[in-house]
Fold:
Amino acid sequence: MTKFWWKLLGIFFVLHSIIGGLLFEVPHLPILNESIRNLYFHVPMWFAMILIFLLSVIHSIRYLRTGNQLYDYKAVESINVGVFFGILGLTTGMIWANYTWGEPWSNDPKQNGSAITMLLYMAYLVLRSSIDEEQKRARISAVYNVFAFPVMIVLLFILPRMTDSLHPGNGGNPGFNSYDLDASMRGIFYPAVIGWILLAVWITQLRYRYRVVFDKLQ
Amino acid sequence: MARQAKVILYLIRKELLLEWRSRYAINGLLLYAIACVFICYLSFKRIDPLAWNALFWIILLFAAVNAVAKSFMLEKRERFLYYYQVAAPSAVILSKISYNALLMVLLSGICFFFYSVVLHNPVQDLPYYLLSIFVGAVSLSSVLTMVSGIAAKANNSATLMTVLSFPVMTPVLLLLIRLSKNAMDGLDRSVSTDELLALGAINAIVLAVSLVLFPYLWRD
Structure:
């Protein structure tokens, strides 16, 4: 119980966000209407992705400092999980945009930025598979990972702020802070973010352990 | 510090000398850029200003990838071992970035001249447009130099260079297109301050990260 309490917490929060997110009362705002519930599912994906990528950069820096192969495994598995969450974030966003904006892709700076972020990290995976020698692969992909991180920050946080975005809360659109009933929404949203982050960390941990065992058996 | 600067200058001179001796790479690049421009002219014939600007940067993007990709591929392993003995890694990467910036400024200048000769030039604020080209050449080379170093360590494949560099370059390219479009439309110069600041910040970050990471990259 002392070691796996956070996994139970993650499961509880995610279940809470699914049940509460679909059933509880939400404020009725123009444009958004009932689709506002997507906040509970779409936004936590990005929180989880960014945190997991941050963890992978930390592991890559630790690899470069120590040369310990295990850090490289942690970094690559973090990126695998981060890309997965990014794809989930893009998909949930596109389904939502199809109903709210009228089309799945509408040249929104945040959409474009996150799509390029996916390309950035998929390039990392391609780079890894192009190098055979294990140590060299670990070192060079760690260098690329650290190099890519500031680019991701620019893509997701700086460029969207330089132009108007269609996203709720940007460019005069109704957003999170303008809700009448925001207190009840926060009660589901914040636990959902924590729950999905914990779930992402858990998946990463499982994949990392699997990779270590797989490596030993070979 | 003074010694470091001397080493960097010496390395840049060495790059220029090597380039001048063979002249194969630089001529190839110029021909590549000019052929690109001409093919675009033949395919479009007439083009509206918005596409004119975007197309120019796309041509420069491909030219830049080709130009900078060479910077580490021509270096043999043995020569790197030699550099390792005589120069600090920061001097090597700084000299490469400066040399690539020089090359890109030259290349984009010639490209721009030829581009505006064949495809009618709609630019209204020419000095500011030239400034945006200069900033663009420097930014593209500073971002691409590190990527080419990474790609060169991984089997030198041209595909890998493109795959790695395109996503990394997109933020810079988007800002450059916005900056140069403002200059093309002849907007007030204060409108573009944000873009210039952002480009400067990106360059500073890229330079700092390259200086920190390059030592890990080049030692085998």
Summary: The helical segments of chain A are 5-23, 39-66, 69-100, 109-129, 134-162, 182-217. Chain A has six helices and no strands. The radius of gyration of chain A is 19 Å.
